[in-house]
Amino acid sequence: MSVENSLVESSKGIVIIGAGLAGWHVIDAIRAKDKGIPITLITADSGDRYHKPMLTMAISQKKSAADLVRATGIDAAEAANVKLLANTQVTDVDTTTQQLQLISALRSDPVYTNYATIGYDKLVLAMGAHPIFPKSLPEELVWHVNHIERFGQLQEKLATGSQHVAIVGAGMVGTEIAEDLLKAGHQVTLIDLNDAPLSQMLPPKATSRIAQAVNSQGINFLGGYQVSAITRLSDGKLQVSYEALASATDSSTAEPIEPLIVDHVIASTGLTVDDKLPTAAGVELTVALVSWWMRRPCVPVQPIFMRLVTVCLSMACRVVTSHRCARRLLPLLMMY
């Protein structure tokens, strides 16, 4: 729904920004208690409902992006009696007037685009997190699988046959993707700063066993290395230059490392939260680093008209965390 050159009528009720797992779980929780309270969902994409953790295991199952969509945004909004503002971005929050400034995500020229506004009684920020691209990983040359649209584009490329894929980052997501691509018949190289996968999440004894298991499966794990550059070659392939960390080798005696030549590079180097809207809303941004095995609940933050659905930076735990956040959030939304 485009909001260009129009003024969206101020609405009462709850406005939710973000149609990911957390946003839709909040809607589910509210509707379980109140079928009639007005809810508006604002999202920069179509708002389709899908299970994001499936993105790291769908290629080996030969599933396309369309196969992963449980319901389109339009159908899901109709079923939940929600007003959906799809392809719409929130550019500012005014907590004094309790209004949001909106603009179409499909605008062709933002300089000459009029802004629209919408009011709220209570506001939920469920915007999620975005991939981090270090300077050595140019965004235009590497993939990420944090969104179904980008996953779909990668899946189409990989469907043409067996290819060599380098994955940078051996956390939970990177390791899952590596295993999934290997099952799909691709050659996989997994690169990480640490000596073993999941080193930021598990003790050394456990990660050592995981490293052995990863290598035994046929994944080429390069631990203790960092990518220094990625360049596109004339034949379309990518050259991945990498080097050993200074702590892992004596730079004076280290031999030059032959660059990798691969078909694709996937960045799995972490996620970051855009703090623009929380800051504008006067909310102190609290990011919950919730480890998947600890199942820690989220902690809502003030002020009373604002609740920030905390962001879990491990893809595998989003189902649990966002689900619990939604249900812990509901009584607070209904309190005022």
Any chance you could write out the topology, listing elements then pairs?
Layout lengths: L13 E4 L3 H13 L5 E4 L6 E2 L14 H4 E3 L1 H7 L3 E3 L2 E7 L4 E6 L11 E4 L2 E4 L4 E2 L16 H11 L5 E5 L3 H12 L3 E6 L11 H14 L2 E4 L1 E8 L5 E7 L15 E3 L1 E4 L3 E2 L3 H5 L25 E3 L9 H18 L1
Parallel strand pairs: 1-2, 1-9, 2-5, 9-19, 11-12, 11-17, 12-13
Antiparallel strand pairs: 3-4, 6-7, 7-8, 10-18, 14-15, 15-16
Helix pairs in contact: 1-8
N-to-C span: 30 Å
CATH topology of the largest domain: FAD/NAD(P)-binding domain
Q: Indicate the structural class.
A: alpha/beta
Low-confidence stretches: 1-11, 287-336
Mind describing the biggest β-sheet?
A: 5 strands, parallel
**Beta-strand residue percentage:** 15-25%
How many structural units, i.e. domains? Answer: 2
**CATH homologous superfamily title of the largest domain:** FAD/NAD(P)-binding domain
Coarse morphology? elongated
Mean pLDDT: 81
CATH architecture of the largest domain: 3-Layer(bba) Sandwich
Query: Count of helical segments?
Result: 8
The radius of gyration over CA amounts to 22 Å
- Total number of β-strand segments? 19
- Trace the largest sheet across and list its strands: 5-2-1-9-19
**How helical, in percent, are the residues?**
25-40%
List the helices and strands in order: EHEEHEHEEEEEEHEHEHEEEEEEHEH
Assign the CATH class of the largest domain. Answer: Alpha Beta
